[in-house]
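Model the whole thing, not chain by chain.
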Amino acid sequence: MLEIKNLHASVEDNEILKGLDLVIKPGEVHAIMGPNGSGKSTLSYVLAGKEDYEVTEGSATLDGEDLFELEADERAAKGLFLAFQYPLEIPGVATMTFLKAALNAQRRARGEGELSTPEFMKQVREKADGLGISTEMLKRALNVGFSGGEKKRNEILQMALLEPKYCILDETDSGLDIDALKIVAEGVNALRAKDRGFLVITHYQRLLDHIVPDIVHVMSKGRIVRTGGPELAHELEAKGYADYVGAAA
Amino acid sequence: MPAVQETVERVRQIDVDQYKYGFVTDIETEKAPQGLSEEIVRFISARKEEPEWMLEWRLDAYRRWLTMREPTWAKVDYPKINYDELYYYAAPKNFVAPKSLDDVDPELLRTYEKLGIPLREQEMLAGVEGAGSRVAVDAVFDSVSVATTFKKELAAAGVIFMPISEAIREYPELVRKYLGSVVPVTDNFFATLNSAVFSDGSFVYVPKGVRCPMELSTYFRINERNTGQFERTLIIADEGSYVSYLEGCTAPQRDENQLHAAVVELIALDNAEIKYSTVQNWYPGDVEGKGGIYNFVTKRGDCRGRKAKISWTQVETGSAITWKYPSCILRGDESQGEFYSIAISNGRQQVDSGTKMIHLGKNTTSKIISKGIAAGKSENTYRGLVSAHRKATNARNFTNCDSLLIGDQCGAHTVPYIEAKTSTAIFEHEATTSKIAEDQLFYCQQRGLSEEEAIALIVNGFVKEVLQHLPMEFAVEAQKLISISLEGSVG
Amino acid sequence: MTADIQPIRTAAETALAEAFARFKQPLPAGEIARRDAAFAEFHKAGLPHRRVEEWKYTDLRAAMREAKPLAEPNSAAVVAMAKTAIAQFGSLGAARAVIVNGQYVQDLAQAADGVEITPLAAALTESSDLLASLGQSGAPASNTAVALNNAFASDGVLVRMSSRTKTTLHLALHQEGDHASYTRIVVAVDAGAEVELIETHTGSGAHQTNTMVEILVGEGARVAHYKLQDESRETLHLATLAAKLEGGVNFSSTALTKGANLARQQIFLTFAGEHSEAVLGGVSLAGARRHLDTTLFVDHAVPNCASRERYKTVLTDDARGVFQGKILVRRDAQKTDGQMKSDALLLSESAEMDLKPELEIYADDVVCAHGATAGAIDDELLFYLMARGIPRAEAETLMITAFAGEVFEGIENDAVRDIFVASAQNWLSNRG
C-alpha cells in the first residue's frame, strides 16, 4: 500500500504541497487531474526522491516503510517507479547498458542475483517487441535523438522490465499523438495486475479513455479537493477546472 | 570567389570621407604646458578648483604611474607613445562653467548640433516623439564639461547628474567614498595615468528606490591637437534604483594619433540595476592607418549588493586601437552581470576587447554575447575572463562569441580564459569564426538584393542579438553606424 | 643603466645548470655547441612561472623546487622490473622499442618489417646522418620543455616506418627511481605508409621525466598515435608531442592521462601539406592534489585541412586540470575546418579547472569553432538514473564513463581501447 498523509512540501521556500492525503492499494489505478500549477508533478518528484524538494510535514509510506528515509535509488529498489514527463537524455550511455545497470542494481538491492546477459537480453527483447522498440533503438544512447513518442515508449519499457509495485505516470500523454498514446496505454494496461498500483497524473481526460482508472482525484493548490469514479474525469473534461481554481485556498 | 575579390577591391578604396565627424571646431583653447609632471597634475587640480584630498589622490597616482610599465599582452601593435609630447589639459579659452544652457558658447552648440547631439532641451523635446524618450546629456569637450541638460528635472527626482569636476566640489563625501573603489588607483598603467590627470566626465548618483526618469548620456568630443582625453565617470545606483546611461564619442580627423584613456566605475547596491551603453565612434584613422584615437579604457562595474545587476552593451566601430574590457565584479549574492558587444574593425584598426566576469557571491549569473566583425586589414580580438571563486557556489556563465571575417587580409581572434574554482559552477563557452556563406549571399541575391544589401542584411542579423539590448534611440544610430563602418569593405 | 639584469636563479635552475655542465663534457665538440644553444634557450628565461602566458596555469618554477640528478645507467634489476611492468600490455604490436629511465634497452626490443629503429645514443656516437631528423617537427625551440629536452636528451630512438600495410610500434617507456630522465623519439613515416604508434608510460619512484616525441608524416600516410600516461603519482611529467603533416595525411592522437603528480602534455601539430585531417583527443583523470595540463597548438599553415580536438577532464579532491588549446589559421590557409571542444567534470567542491581555448584566424573562408564547459554532474540526470534504482556512486560512474567514452569511441585499435577503458575504470573505482 502506498500511503500519503498530510504531505507538505516546498521548493526554495515556496510551499507547493499543502496537506495532501492519498492511499493507493495494490491492484488499484488512481488518476490525479488538476490545473497547471496545482502541484501534480511536485507530488511525483517528492515521492520519487528528487533533491530540490523539501518535505516539511506529513509522511509517505510504501508497504509500511517510510519513503523519506530512502534515497531515490532505494525507493526504486523497493518497487516505486516514476515515468518521467520529460525523460532525460544521457549521451554516451547506450539504452541497453542503462537498462541492465538499473535492473541488476535493483536485483542486488533486493538480494536477488544479477541476470546473465542472455537472460537479460531475452527479457528486454520480449518486452521491447510489444512496445515496437527496435534493437537498433536499444543500442542508441539513452533517449538521445529519440522522438517524444520513442521516449515515452522507452519509459514504459523500463517499467515493464523493472516490474515495480507502484507506478507513477507523470503526464505520460504530453507530446504524444493518438497512435503513440495508444501504444503507451496498451503497454501500461498490460502491466495492470492485482499486486500493482498505479498513479496516473494527467491534465487531460484523453489518456483516461485508454487507461481507465478506478478512482479519480482532483488536485488544486497542493491538495486533493475531490474524489470520485471514472465519471469525474468526463465531468472535468466538459466543465474544465474553473470550479477548482481557488477552491482549496 | 567573386564576392571576396570585390570586397578586397573596395577595401582599397576606403576613404576617410566616410568618417562624418572629422571636422575641427575653430575655438580658442587654453592648454596646460606640454608633457607630464607633478606641476601639470597640480595645474589640472587647480583649474578644477579641487580640494586638497583630491590633489593628493592625483599625486599619489602620478608617483605610482612613474613606476609602472605599459601593458603588452593585448594583440595590438603601435609605436611607443611619448607621454612627454602630449597635452594633458585643454579647455575653450576663458571657459567658465555655464549657469544655464543660454550661456553656452554658440560655437560649441553648433559643434554638437553638427554631431547630431542637440543640447537645447526644447529641441530635444520637439525632435523626439513622446516624453518618455528624452535623454539628458552631459557634453564633454576636450577636458571640460561644456553643458549638462535636464539638470533641474533630474534633481527633482533626487538624481544627481553633473560633471565629475563639479561633483568633487559639491558632493565630496560621495565622490571620496566611491572614487577608485572599483578601479583602484594602481589597477593598470592607463587607469593610473587617468587617476593622475583625469579632467572631466560624468557623475551620477541615483538614490534609494528611484528609477531614473530619463536616459542619461555623456557625449565626449576630442577637438584639440596632440591632446589626450582622460575622462572619468562614476555612477552609483543606491539600493533598489535603476539607471540607463549612454555614452557616445567622436574626434576630428588628424594625422597624428591621439590618446584617450578613460576610467568608468559603476557601483550597484542591493537590488539596483545599471545599464551602460556605449557607441564608440572615435576617429579610426585613414586607410593606411595614419591617425586615429588610441582608446585605452578601463571600465568596471561592481555588483556590491545582493541581487544587483550591471549590464554593459557596446558598439565599437571607431578608434585606431581599442583596448577595452568592461567588466563585472559579482560580489553580491544573486547578482547578475551582462556584456553585449559588437566590435567592428576595418581599414587598419586594431581591436582587443572583451570582458571579465568575476563571480564572488553565491548564485551569481553572467552572460556574454560578443560579435566581432573584421574587414579590411584590421585585427579584431575578443579577450575575456570568466572566473568563479571557491565560495561562489552555483555560479553560472554562458558565453557566446562569434566572429565574422570579410576579406582575407584581416584577422579575428578569440582568447577566453575560464577559471572554475568550484564544482558547483556551470560555465559554458562557445565560439565560432566564419565568413558570410556564399550560399546565404546567393540566396539573398536570387531574391533580388544587391550584394551590398545582402551583406548588410546578413551582418545586421549577425549582430541583432546585441543591438536589441541598446536603448531604442541608440539602436537606430548604431545600426546606421554599422553599415557606414562596413562601407568600402562591403560594397 | 646598461648593465644586464641577472635574474635570481632558483635552486632547481642552478642545479640544472650544474648538471648540464657535467653532462656535456664527454660529448663531441659539434654536439656541445648544439647542446649549449639549446640550454641557453632554457637558461635565458629560466623555469617559467604564472606570469609567463603559456605557463599561466602551470607554474613550473613553483612545482619544480629541485632538479633531480640524471638517471644512472640501468642495472639488470631495473631492466627486470621494467620487463615485468611492460608485460601487462601483452603484445600490442609487431615492433617494440623499450626505453627504461631514458635509456634504450636492446634486449627488450622487438623487430618487424618496415620498422627501422636506431637508438639515439648510437646515432650520437656515430654522428649518424639520421640526427638531421631531430627538431624538424615544428616544436618551438624556445619552449621550456623542448629546450631542456634538446639540451639533455642523449637517448631514445630514431625510427623510420615504411610499410604500406598497417604496422604497429609499441613505444614502452618505463621509469624506476628518483631521478631525472630525458627521452627523445623521432618517428619518420614514409609517404603512403600506414602505422600505429602506441606510447605507454609506466613506473615507480619520484622522478622527473621529459619526453619529446616527434612524428614526421609523409605524403598520404595514415598515422594513429596513442598515449597512455600512467606514471607514478609522485612524478613530474613533461611531455611534448610534435607532429608535422605533409599533404593527404590522416593523423590521430588519443591520450589517457592519469599518472604523475604534475603532468604537462604539450602538443604541437603543424599542417604542412594540403588536404590532411587530424583528430586529437584526450581524457585526463586526477584526484588528490594532482595537476594535469594539456596544452595544444594547432597550426593550420596551408589550405584545405581539417582538425578536430576533443578533450575531457575529470577532477576530484583538490585536483587541478588545465586545458589550453590554440588553433592558428594562417592567411593562406583558406577552407580550414577546425573544431575544438574541451569539457571538464568536477566531482568535488575544491577541484579546479582552468580552460583557455583560443582561435587566431587570418583567413576568411574558414569554419572554426571552439567550445568549453566546466561543471558538476547534472543533478537531473543523476536523479533519473537513481529513480531507476541505480545507486548514486554507480550512477556517477556510469555518467563519467559516458563522458570520457566519447573520446575512447574513436579508437580504432581494439586492444588499445580495451586498455584505455579498463585503465579509466580502474581510476574511477579508486578516484585517486
